[in-house]
């Protein structure tokens, strides 16, 4: 149901690969709530995904961009403003990639060139996007930037390897640029730390299904689904959250503040009996 929370607002949504993507669901929700936006993804990801169908459904323009390329990002932000007829009110950063994870590299045996690429794609891209937006004065006052993160930025998790450092850097950039853009244009910048989610990226991590089930049993509310994450993003884009900035917001059903659940304790007792 639409409450027109984003009526009249315009923005950029990155990272929509297929209907399982959180960014895909954010786009649908933003459209439902009255927003207009440009969709963007890397050219390779666009060839692998189904973004054209989403664009048609939402009446959105697609502007391909490699988020590590300043030239591409300059074209993205200038093109988005041209297509949308003015400055931007929101940006979703939903970008992450690790060849070390894809290739099953152990943390002690990382390919460092791939590691640098992980950082560039998954974290530094946020800084580059915001730097371009700042130079172009691309944001309206009280705009909102949301970048998708994960609790591995604060805790050690098996098999998340170099993405752990990327997410930590992503959250640090959001704080630093949140301070800067807040003073310059009253633009807020936040990260959203989501439950394990069965997206194309998530399920590519070794042992994902086991950890998904563990997190679901640990969380009082269970794992937060992608649709609920999209709702939270819409709230952060809206005027209802004007004074929320520089935060890493946990959207995980209570996982991050639960020591142990009764369900997990019962399973451990059963396993040891």
UniProtKB/TrEMBL annotation:
Superkingdom per UniProt: Bacteria
Single GO molecular function: enoyl-[acyl-carrier-protein] reductase (NADH) activity
Keywords, ordered alphabetically: Fatty acid biosynthesis, Fatty acid metabolism, Lipid biosynthesis, Lipid metabolism, NAD, Oxidoreductase
Segments traversing the membrane: none
Keyword match NAD: yes
Presence of the UniProt keyword Glycoprotein in the record: no
Name listed for the protein in its UniProt record: Enoyl-[acyl-carrier-protein] reductase [NADH]
Pathway: Lipid metabolism; fatty acid biosynthesis
UniProt record similarity statement: Belongs to the short-chain dehydrogenases/reductases (SDR) family. FabI subfamily.
Catalysed reaction, written as an equation: a 2,3-saturated acyl-[ACP] + NAD(+) = a (2E)-enoyl-[ACP] + NADH + H(+)
EC number: 1.3.1.9
């Amino acid at each position: 149901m639409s409450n027109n929370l984003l009526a009249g607002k315009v923005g950029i949504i990155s990272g929509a690969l297929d209907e399982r993507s959180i960014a895909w669901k954010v786009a649908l929700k933003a459209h439902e709530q009255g927003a207009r936006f440009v969709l963007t993804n890397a050219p390779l990801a666009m060839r692998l995904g189904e973004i054209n169908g989403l664009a048609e459904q939402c009446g959105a323009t697609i502007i391909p961009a490699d988020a590590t390329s300043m030239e591409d990002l300059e074209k993205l932000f200038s093109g988005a403003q041209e297509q949308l007829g003015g400055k931007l009110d929101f940006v979703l950063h939903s970008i992450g990639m690790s060849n070390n994870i894809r290739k099953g590299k152990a943390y002690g045996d990382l390919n460092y060139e791939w590691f640098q690429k992980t950082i560039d794609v998954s974290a530094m891209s946020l800084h580059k996007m915001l730097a371009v937006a700042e130079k172009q004065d691309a944001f309206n006052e009280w705009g909102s930037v949301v970048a998708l993160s994960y609790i591995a930025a604060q805790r050690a998790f098996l098999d998340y390897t170099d993405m752990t450092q990327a997410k930590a850097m992503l959250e640090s950039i959001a704080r630093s640029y949140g301070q800067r853009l807040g003073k310059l244009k009253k633009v807020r910048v936040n990260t959203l730390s989501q439950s394990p989610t069965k997206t194309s990226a998530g399920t590519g991590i070794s042992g994902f299904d086991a950890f998904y089930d563990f997190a679901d049993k640990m969380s009082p509310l269970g794992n937060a689904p992608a649709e609920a994450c999209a709702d939270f993003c819409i709230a952060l884009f809206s005027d209802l959250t004007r004074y929320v900035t520089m935060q890493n917001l946990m959207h995980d059903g209570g996982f991050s503040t639960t020591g142990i659940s009764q369900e997990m304790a019962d399973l451990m007792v059963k396993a040891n009996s």
